[in-house]
Amino acid sequence: MGNTLSGKVVLVTGGSRGLGREMVLAFADAGADVIIASRKLDACEALATLVREKYGREALPVACNVGDWAQCEALVEAAYTTFGRVDVLVNNAGMSLLYPSLDQVSEEMFDKVIATNLKGPFRLSALIAARMAVAGNGSILNISSIEATHPEPLAVPYAAAKAGLEAMSNGLAQTYAPAVRVNTIRCGAFDTDIAKAWPPEMRDYLVRHTAMRRIGTPADIVGAALYFASDASAFCTGSTLALDGGYR
């Protein structure tokens, strides 16, 4: 990947598996030190060890449920105590819960989905963007989903949260400009751990409705993530990139 992020510090939530893990490895390969946050500390620690051994970069593993603002604040403090700054924040942590029908979505379920996908990214962005603005530069990347624009019956709260995340990205871009850039990747179907639960007919449907006639692999997010994290996107803010293989 070269050293396009040499000397940078990148924080990735949901960073221990799936798209988050792939981005962490790509950022380290590009020369960045990384902060790996997820609910499971052991998974973060294992990836941090790999980053140090394979790429020779510093890696800080932190257990964090982003839906809890106190834990978000502790994550930010750990990052700044260890590295003194955060140059790139990637709000990647996300979740969706299965439900039999909308009227059976409990308040607890709804709140959990909103907290992980929207409330947490808002708090982390606000805390870190304020410090980035003082430092004079920074990039925030929010990971959204095609559900934001193509909501399905089995993912309505998740779709609402992701639509809110995209609106929030645009607002943050205006609030913290010109020092801080805020952009979004709207992901299509990707072959991560979540995909293991898909029934065969769902996978077939997604493939049929994707122009590339396949679902994404975690490696497919790397180019876009590096673009938004690096100075290659120096004149890009408030933008949403559809990384969905041409889903319709």
Q: Which features does this protein show?
A:
single chain, 248 residues, alpha/beta, Rossmann fold, 7-stranded parallel β-sheet, 16% strand, globular
Describe this structure in words.
With 248 residues, the chain is of the alpha/beta class. It has a single domain (9-243), classed as NAD(P)-binding Rossmann-like Domain (Rossmann fold, 3-Layer(aba) Sandwich), CATH 3.40.50. 44% of the residues lie in helices and 16% in strands. The protein contains 7 helices and 7 strands, in the order βαβαβαβαβαβααβ. It has helices at 18-29, 41-55, 69-83, 107-135, 156-176, 200-208, 222-229; strands at 9-13, 33-38, 59-63, 88-91, 138-145, 180-187, 240-243. Strands 3-2-1-4-5-6-7 form a 7-stranded parallel beta sheet, with helices on both faces. α2 links the parallel β2 and β3 (59-63). α3 (69-83) packs parallel to α4 and α4 (107-135) packs parallel to α5 (156-176). The mean pLDDT is 96.
> What share of residues are in beta strands?
15-25%
Can you tell me the number of structural domains? 1
Query: Which residues sit in consecutive blocks of at least 5 with pLDDT less than 50?
Result: none
CATH class: Alpha Beta
Assign an overall shape.
globular
- Trace the largest sheet across and list its strands: 3-2-1-4-5-6-7
